[in-house]
Amino acid sequence: MSVGHTEVTTAPVVSCGEQHEDCGIREVLDRIGDKWSVLIVVELARGVHRFRQLQRAVPGISQRMLTLTVRRLERDGLVTRTVHPTVPPQVEYELTAMGHSLTHLVRALADWSAEHRDAIAQARQEWDAEHPDSGIR
Amino acid sequence: MSVGHTEVTTAPVVSCGEQHEDCGIREVLDRIGDKWSVLIVVELARGVHRFRQLQRAVPGISQRMLTLTVRRLERDGLVTRTVHPTVPPQVEYELTAMGHSLTHLVRALADWSAEHRDAIAQARQEWDAEHPDSGIR
DNA sequence: CAGTATCCTTAATGATACTG
DNA sequence: CAGTATCATTAAGGATACTG
Hints:
Number of strands of chain A: 3
Shape of chain A: elongated
Distance between the termini of chain A: 31 Å
Strand order of the largest sheet of chain A: 1-3-2
Oligomer: homodimer
Largest sheet of chain A: 3 strands, antiparallel
Number of helices of chain A: 5
């Protein structure tokens, strides 16, 4: 079924409570809206990973960005970092319960994307055709 | 119920189909992961808006970013732009059906955020306390 | 009103080299 | 292995001025 937007004007679909105020949405997006966070979360959802293992599993990520991203996830309580004092060092990353709960959201994102990617691609093509030199893109 | 990650290693929660490949997740995030898109979508979910009206409803956005963001949303088929050839000009923005379907996702984001914002804030505090001069933040 | 056009600042990411 | 440190590059966003 489609969404059906009859009388949308008086029935806010999103309901932030207040009028023109940010819901907490930006907070989530500031956290997972970056280039790598969700990819790492998705990979960690598959199980515990060591640093290099994670890097291999997320193709294209630099050592630097992996460190930064995983640190931020740790800081936010989404990931745990366990150092085994061996030589060579071994560090394991694992999702926390809260991290796992995020995967539900990620799933929703993936589902929406899968459902609409074709329609979006088509809309883009048409728009681009009608707006040749627009700077947008 | 909680997430329960027994034997996660062999049971991917997110299921991208392929192993270490991006699901379509990045495509959604590239679209709504920016600073303004969701806020505009949320506002448009309340009903049709004119340009200035939209700008007033989304405090802090510059004219430039409003134009850019709304153009991209239009290009992706999430928003329609209707020009009424009057003087002064009047332009109306409205969510498409696909745009409205996005609001479900936004709702999920808002819900997750509301549920976990306290836990995240606390995790941050603790982490910051334990890692005084870490560069992260 | 609804934009464009420019210029400028900052944040995000990448590349590379080095270390316990 | 698992990082850190530095430098370079790019992209995102903001400020301001101008226009049909």
